[in-house]
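For consistency, the fold was encoded as tokens, which produced the following:
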Amino acid sequence: MPADEEQKKPLTKKLSASGIFAPIQDSLAELDEFLEGQISQFSPVTRPLVKYTLSHRGKRLRPALVFFSGMRADGVAEKNVITGAAVVELIHLATLVHDDILDAATIRHASPTLFAKYGAHTAVLLGDAILAQALQLASAFDSAELCRAIAVATRKICDGEIWQTTERGNSELSLESYFQIIQMKTGELFEISAFLGATLGGNGAEYGKACAEFGRRIGRAYQIFDDLVDFLGTEDSIGKTLGTDFASGKYTLPMILFLQKKSPQQRAEISKKIASGLLSISELSAEMREAGTFAESKKFFDEECRAAVAAVAPFENFPGTAGLVGVANFVAAQVENFFAAD
């Protein structure tokens, strides 16, 4: 199917995670075993903290991208593909530990964050240790270029977080800057995950390039979903502290779109009210819903999801392509659930 037609196809809405990830269940189990084995690499004092962090993992979307893009015809994951999945999962976990410190978040995956349980000093050092372990694993790959790409992606993730932090309270933040930020802080790890799998799985340079584009687009879509969750979700249903971006003055896509409809003076007034606590997230959410901001945000989300699917459409005969499309549909379904209940 031509790419432009693929862009117009509706995404599947009703999907189960178990169905989508069924083809890689054995690989995910091997990943769990591999990660458990990494705990012994840390000092006895640090091991319980690493174990706690590993025991509170989420959907494992990034390892799933590694496994699907690196899938063989027989569905068996090569040992280096397992290692690649571990690298991206450890990098992701390290960033979550650091994010929770920056956002003063106390709940993630329905459990106390490491920050809440052990304090900022311990949490930041553990995040650093986990990140260092990920890069040590990456250094064992035969390709120095691949290891370098992982290191660059890791640096960009940090750069994106720093950039977003410096923009706190900036009611004039542009859409262009926003998309550059989310590409760095979220898109990069999704992109390198899909590229890593295709490369380690020996599926060729062209497929690797297509998978990288898929990862980039689905990563950006996932960040838009996460930004919408802050306004539309509940902590009970999502299992993590919400409203942290709003409380800290980080202006994400819904806020940017809402503020664009206001005059410079109105934007400044809204920003001042948020900073002083005079405007609650529930009050603002009601105004944003009335202004159509959430529906507008969803259009950007849908565009990214469809672009992701279009990127791998020419490779439909590759073993893992259907799985990648399934991941895109799964992510799309998360946002659809919010709008169906709205």
Summary: Residues 205-232 form the longest helix (28 residues).
